[in-house]
Design brief:
The chain has helices at residues 23-35, 78-84, 126-138, 169-173, 185-205, 260-265, 270-286, 302-310, 316-319, 330-343, 354-366, 403-406, 408-413, 430-435, 460-473, and strands at residues 47-49, 55-57, 59-60, 74-75, 93-97, 100-106, 112-118, 147-151, 158-162, 206-207, 210-211, 220-222, 228-230, 237-238, 247-248, 267-268, 390-391, 393-394, 492-493. The protein is α+β, with helices and mostly antiparallel strands. It has two domains: 23-162, Phosphorylase Kinase, domain 1; 169-493, Orthogonal Bundle (Transferase(Phosphotransferase), domain 1). The strands form seven sheets. The protein has a six-stranded mixed sheet, with helices on both faces. The chain has a three-stranded mixed sheet with strand order 16-15-19. A two-stranded antiparallel ribbon has the order 1-2. Strand 6 (100-106) and strand 7 form a beta hairpin. Helix 1 (23-35) crosses helix 3 (126-138). Residues 1-64, 400-464, 478-497 are annotated as: Disordered. It catalyses: L-seryl-[protein] + ATP = O-phospho-L-seryl-[protein] + ADP + H(+); L-threonyl-[protein] + ATP = O-phospho-L-threonyl-[protein] + ADP + H(+). Its main location: membrane.
Length: 497
Amino acid sequence: MGCFPCFGSSENRRDKKVDVEGGKEGFRKEAASALSTSQVMRVNSDKSKSRNGSESKKETLVPKEGNTAHIAAQTFSFRELAAATKHFRPECLLGEGGFGRVYKGRLENGQIVAVKQLDRNGLQGNREFLVEVLMLSLLHHQNLVNLIGYCADGDQRLLVYEYMPLGSLEDHLHDLPPNKVPLDWNARMKIAAGAAKGLEYLHDKASPPVIYRDFKSSNILLGEGYHPKLSDFGLAKLGPVGDKTHVSTRVMGTYGYCAPEYAMTGQLTLKSDVYSFGVVFLELITGRKAIDNTRAAGEQNLVAWARPLFKDRRKFPKMADPSLQGHYPMRGLYQALAVAAMCLQEQAATRPLIGDVVTALSYLASQTYDPNAPLPHTSRIGPSTPRLREDGKNLLIGLESKHSTDSPKLRHRDSVKVEADGGSGRKWGLEELESRQDSPSYSPVLLGKPRDCPRSLDSDPDRERAIAEAKVWGENWRERKKGNAGNFDSTYEEEDY
């Protein structure tokens, strides 16, 4: 699926031509302008705390006016890239979409690369091309694809990336040929955790934060060992800063992945990306496409199909990808579906921060499942997770988001006021999540007030296990709107595109 307005005309836009006559300097200035047209954001090198408590500097995203030294991507001539791809022969074609085509190539130094040749009449215009060059030149992370260089010869627009040998996540989930082995549970959790880390980097480490805006399975590329990297940053936007709650922009993205509040209002927040992540995570769990018009009515939209199933835990096994053939941990399935359901909350303020999602998925990815283990020969759906207990001290250890204590402005930025009295975040506890699984009406999206269950742990391993799980499934998503007076009138307006 290509990129297009989620709701509205898909008519192609024609952007003004890039000023390449001025050489590289002209291109850099145009790129900086494309990223933030309303103003040039100041450089912010504030230190932030990493997950292990050490200090790290945030990545400066937008250069100061006149400072173009930040763009370090290599420039290529069209002739060089034509030679690298054997003049764009069909046997070198890796894939194509609304933006153009991607070819496998070999540079003069022998490096294998992926060359994206943009269709001059396609969906990715000059503006998106410039944004992607600037974004990937400034942002570097193990879960973001590396941009090697670009070509802006005349009206030719090409991007040169590192080559990802395993293709996209979409290639491993949907329409598999008979001889292709589907992803096992461990690989799926590893991919989800890695992709979430890439998104976390954009939200938490970039300054200003970056809203990816087009998170989908076809934009997650896989390297050796199924190492995931996010690609295609043409639709990325700078997030809100200061006391702003969102940015307002033309609705763009891919149908089936857009957050509902963004699709309806054009008001974009970091939580819009979290919703899109939830859709992809649900794809990983179920093996279904976000939108599949070949299915029966009522099952074509993945999220709409999943919502009623979230309300009944007895139906959870029916949500697992049939290609897994039952080889997955039942508790892991419950927890994974709970994370997906939280990300897919209709109200943006009740979704978790991506940092909390990373913590939960890192835990799930660490729980290696033996795919060769014998399947259970019982009608019991699966072992229940030990409920949280107390042994003198309350073990319900809340996993405090790093945002929750950093700054009131950050807490304000990540929330959206969706009701007259403001939406509020939720507190999610392991005891609440797990104890409700004993009820046929259990739903991870309809959790009630946690119950007290004071009991003693039988052994040290039980205690350690309960503590570990509490850290992950504790009160991750606390109330973030409390005390905030912001509303939709507080906005950072930008030129629509």
